[in-house]
Design a protein that fits this description.
With 438 residues, the protein is α+β, with helices and mostly antiparallel strands. The chain folds into two domains: 145 residues, ph1033 like fold (Roll); 253 residues, no CATH class. It contains 17 helices and 14 strands. The longest helix is centred in the C-terminal third of the chain and has 13 residues. The radius of gyration is 24 Å and the shape is globular.
């Protein structure tokens, strides 16, 4: 394996240090490898330092360099690194890499985006084999067997009683708590559907966010006629399964437990699920008419290249709001809030906030629904953040748990309160079952 690091900053790899946003880490990385770096504790950081690196710049005009990472530190929402270029290997022009690009699992569009990928290939071996570099002293080879194992869950439950005891036993120090259920505890991450990737690490929908939003409005405009804010529309779109920058959470832990056990994917039925608890101060929770929520939600209107062009380097709010793409964003915000002051905070645009939206349909109402709203390329660390504490409960024996939840009137018919769901549930409940069969 090797680290493939791309940046748009000229001369970055000649400097002493560089920082990647956490959201740019593991793009274009396979699910199998990415799962091992869901946590970034000391074992994971040591593996990153042990792997060889190919340092590149956006575009194909700059040469690439080979080296390693002398330092890797997790700082809030950034990964700080200190690159160490190999002085015995000369800069490699892109023309020398291009013939073996697929061999190294480097895709064409990767050189047009700043990111950090981990590739399951032998970098040094391939460069030598294809005579891009000359053999030198043997380098340490890191393969997937070297990846650290995931930490065992702190809390586990195999029935509803155990689960409730765990939930009631948690001390959240008076903060408000929300929950989310995952049917596979090792597969799913805390990311909204618009930022999800395929098994090879490619974004599935991210770059089409603005077009998908408009297409659904065009084809179903009547359904959105009463929505005042972009956030209202995103909530409705999330309800209809369009990928958005919202992540569903609930104030009812038993609803989260239901989702931790229920899955239409056969590969998730025999693996443990999990319930994630999110604790935060009440003052941090926003509502549907929040200005901060409007700023983040309206990012949806901007094309991907416009969002990526926003320069977040300046912390000066006045200067930031002069940026052409920020002015474009302000146009959409003022369309729903004419009296908005016109001062977008760059930190807000990259944050993750909790929002209580309107209960515009029976499903959100029954599920006690709220949302985590993700800003531009924002990430919520799997271990939580300074503002949002994360606790996990692993859930096994899922079929038995679902039967117990059904006795408490939590089932397909009530979690999805539509006539189709009710009809399907009733049909299955009253279907003939041969009691003589084992």
């Amino acid at each position: 394996m090797f680290n493939f690091l791309v940046t748009a900053k000229n001369g970055a790899w000649e400097e002493k240090g560089y920082a990647y946003d956490r959201g740019r880490f593991l793009e274009y990385t396979s699910d199998e490898i990415a799962a091992s770096f869901r946590e970034l504790n000391k074992p994971q950081l040591e593996v990153l330092k042990a792997m060889p690196c190919l340092f590149a710049y956006e575009g194909t005009h700059e040469s690439m360099r080979v080296g390693r990472l002398k330092t890797v530190k997790l700082r809030d929402r950034q990964l700080y690194i200190e690159p160490e270029l190999d002085p015995t290997i000369a800069p490699i022009p892109f023309e020398a890499i291009k013939p073996i690009q697929l061999t190294l699992d480097i895709r064409d569009w990767e050189l047009s985006r700043t990111h950090w990928a981990i590739k399951d290939e032998d970098l040094m071996g391939e460069l030598i084999r294809h005579q891009v570099i000359q053999p030198s002293a043997p380098s340490t080879k890191v393969d997937k067997s070297s990846l650290p194992a995931e930490s065992p869950p702190e809390f586990q439950a195999s029935n509803v009683g155990e689960f409730i005891a765990k939930v009631l036993g948690m001390d959240h120090d008076g903060r408000e708590v929300f929950y989310r259920g995952h049917s596979n505890r090792t597969k799913y991450r805390l990311e909204p559907s618009i930022f999800r990737k395929d098994k090879n690490g490619n974004f599935i929908h991210r770059d089409a966010e603005d077009r998908m939003y408009r297409e659904l409005l065009v084809s179903n405009s009547i359904d959105f006629r009463d929505d005042v804010y972009t956030l209202d529309r995103l909530v409705r779109m999330q309800h209809y399964s369009l990928p958005t920058r919202l992540l569903d959470i609930t104030s009812n832990p038993l609803i989260a437990l239901y989702f931790a056990c229920k899955s239409t994917n056969p590969e998730n039925r025999d693996v443990d699920g999990e319930v994630i608890a999110f604790a935060m101060d009440r003052i941090q929770i926003k509502y549907f008419d929040s200005d901060t929520a409007s700023c983040i939600a309206n990012l949806t209107h901007l094309p991907a290249e416009a969002k990526d062009a926003i320069d977040f380097a300046s912390n000066n709010v006045k200067e930031f709001n002069k940026h052409p793409q920020v002015k474009r964003l302000l146009h959409f915000i003022k369309a729903e809030k004419p009296f908005f002051e016109g001062r977008v905070n760059p930190r807000d645009l990259r944050s993750v906030i909790c929002v209580k939206g309107k209960h515009t349909n029976s499903r959100i109402a029954f599920q006690s629904g709220a949302f985590l709203l993700f800003g531009h390329d924002a990430t919520l660390d799997e271990d939580g953040s300074d503002d949002i504490a994360v606790t996990r409960i692993s859930v096994g024996n899922k079929e038995a748990v679902l039967k117990q939840l059904d006795r408490m009137n939590i089932n397909d018919s009530t979690v999805f309160p539509y006539i189709e769901s009710s009809a399907k549930y009733i049909a299955e409940k009253f279907a003939f079952k041969d009691k003589q069969k084992p």
